[in-house]
Amino acid sequence: MLPSLVLNLHRFHDYLATVLGATGGSFQARGPPGMRFLITCDPENVRHMLVSSFVNYPKGEEFASFFDVMGDSFFNADGESWRRQRTRVQHIMSASGLLGFMARWCRDKVETGLLPLLSYMEDNNAPFDLEDVLTRFTFDMTAMPVFGVDTGRLSTDLPPTHVPTAMDAVMEVGFFRHTVPVSCWRLMRRLKIGPERKLAEAQPVLRRFVDEMLERRKKKKLKGGVIISEEQTAGSRAAPDVDIASFYMDDPEYVDEGGEPREFLYATLINYMVAGRDTVGATLAWFLYNLIRHPRVADAIRAELAPIVAARKLKSATAADDTMVVFEPEETKPLVYLHAALFESMRLYPPVPIERKEALAEDVLPSGHRVRAGDKILISVYAMGRMEGVWGEDCAEYRPERWVTAEGGAVRHVPAHRFASFHAGPRSCLGKDISVAQMKCVVATVLWNFDFEVVEGHVVEPKLSVILQMKNGLLVRAKRRRVVR
Ligand code: HEM
Asked: What DSSP line would sit under 431-444, residue for residue?
């Protein structure tokens, strides 16, 4: 397979989808010693590995070495360490006020950062990279709950994005390490050449970022274990009662006797940034891209939003002015078609397109394939979303209606082993509900207030990375919609 893989590397995910489509959903591949792969997108295999035989399919030590910047944190961990960390994350996410704050902060950031920047881009009357704008937005949106600090990447002077770029490098090099023998990338790492050079430059940037955030965080007043931020003292409704870092700051596993961060703390905080920023950023970019390409769907979403705007007009005499509409998370939460359009985009463009596991013991998969202990498993979530056997003959079409129940009143339930964009089983995403709520609110507001047009000739295609970002960004022009309300 090697020659055909090399020839198709630039379109890796589509190539895998084609091969998996032609092989009934699974195939085995052999590389140099130590590279025995089973590649699958068969939902029954996925259920077996991620749910029923979960303990036999950890991520494995090799996986952890691919993402060394995230050390022993929950993304890399297996077994007891992963279980303990996951319980802790669950506890943090359910801590009083955190999810509510995340929803409010996102909504406020749309109003005070994202909409003004899009207006500024429109006034400039020049094409701009919408993916870059969304990356800035999700970076600010994630850093605040993690550190309690506003990183301010969304301002119109477009401050440098070396930290998001360093995060991207971690994911690109992580992908590269999947594709070559371990000895090869280790040698390149030692010599600091090729993609490994990019990672070597990224690591200190991320470390300095965490140091800077912790320093800024420290400057805030601590009162009874609760962080009182500058913003809060100033009376902003967007200030957090509690941030994620505060849950780790008294723990000797994460902080030394002098209060200095240990490696585990750096790794864990970077892990939170990656979990929140990279996934949401990629999803928003593909979602808006799909809406630009399918005006019928964009119009249907606007039709679903129109009654909310009309109801507001009834309540407020000033509603007919030219101000932009910002939707509240509570308003967009119940919207079924918007939700369906989001999931349809995530089906075709899952932000985490590949999951990797390693078999602990020999096993036979539901597809009949035999795996040996140590075999690497690649689950192509991207291909699964494009399989005719799973989604029907129109699987290549962007058609949100497939997600709406026959009665039309609800989003159809699809089990996670068939729609694995948020993973499935014991390791499934802990940020699913909050991120869905946030993304619905963001897209509703952006779509209500703006029309976009992709610049002619601009090619949109996935980058080779562990996160499904766009290789060339998303070059668009924006135009304010002035809706007579
Ligand atoms: C579009 C939005 C998101 C998508 C598609 C997504 C997807 C995923 C996926 C595929 C995994 C499994 C990764 C793996 O182990 O290989 C995961 C895990 C996780 N996600 Fe999300 N995620 C999203 C947003 C978020 C957000 C906003 C947060 C929290 C702020 C979050 C927190 C987590 C955590 C803590 C895990 C680790 C679970 C574990 O290892 O037990 N996610 N997510």
From this structure: SHHHHHHHHHHHHH
Q: What is the whole-number distance in angstroms between the Cα of residue 272 and the centre of ligand 1? A: 9
The domains located in the chain, with CATH, are: 2-480 (1.10.630.10)
User: pLDDT tens across 322-366, in order?
Assistant: 789 999 999 999 999 999 999 999 999 999 999 999 999 999 999
Residue 406 is predicted with a pLDDT of: 87
Residue 423 Cα to ligand 1 middle (Å) = 8
> What does the block give as tokens for 154?
């969304």
Radius of gyration of the chain (CA): 23
pLDDT digits (tens, 9 = 90+) for 196-233: 999 999 999 999 999 999 998 887 645 434 444 444 43
- The closest residue, in CA terms, to atom 41 on ligand 1 is 427
Name every protein residue with a CB atom under 6 angstroms from any ligand 1 atom. Answer: 74, 86, 89, 275-276, 279-280, 283, 351-352, 355, 421-423, 427, 429-431, 434-435
**CA 375 to ligand 1 center in whole angstroms:** 25
Q: Whose CA is nearest to atom 28 of ligand 1?
A: 431
Nearest residue CA, atom 39 of ligand 1?
A: 427
Predicted pLDDT at 35:
78
| Residues sharing a CB contact under 8 Å with residue 407, sequence separation 6 or more, in sequence order | none
Is 76 within 8 Å of 121 (Cβ atoms)? no
As a whole number of angstroms, the distance between CA 275 and CA 203 comes to 17
Residue 429 annotated as binding site: yes
Sign of CA dihedral 15, 35, 267, 162: negative
Cα angle 379, 189, 167; round to 5: 60
Instruction: Find the DSSP H helices in 67-129.
Output: 79-93, 98-109, 115-124
Q: Which residues contact 99 (CB under 8 A, 6 or more apart)?
A: 93, 433, 434
Query: Which residue ranges of the chain lie beneath pLDDT 50?
Result: 221, 223-237
Task: Report which residue type is found at 131.
Answer: E
